[in-house]
Structure prediction request, 102 residues.
Amino acid sequence: MMRRKRITFKDVLKKEMKNTEFRFYFERERAISEIARLIREARLKADLTQSELARKAKTSQTVIARLESGSDQRTPSLDLLERIASALKARLMVSFEYLKAA
Prediction:
């Protein structure tokens, strides 16, 4: 009897990442999730509530909550991220991560 190879999530993801549209949306979701995590961690480190951060960043608590949840499909503007960074006494940094040649 022949054994079937077990297909893992990693195998499926590797295959799907070859599709440029899939990769675009996957990477976009990853970026939104990372922004959410970073904002929440920085806010907690600064010992601020969502409302306090919102006031300092000149936005609403609802906006901060949506950003931190990562559920908002809109990508936050650089202006908003800069205001949040400033309110947290932090510096916003943007970088490029280079992919290996295929």
Notes: Helices lie at 9-16, 20-45, 50-56, 61-69, 78-87. DSSP finds five helices and no strands in the chain. The first helix runs from residue 9 to 16. The radius of gyration is 18 Å.
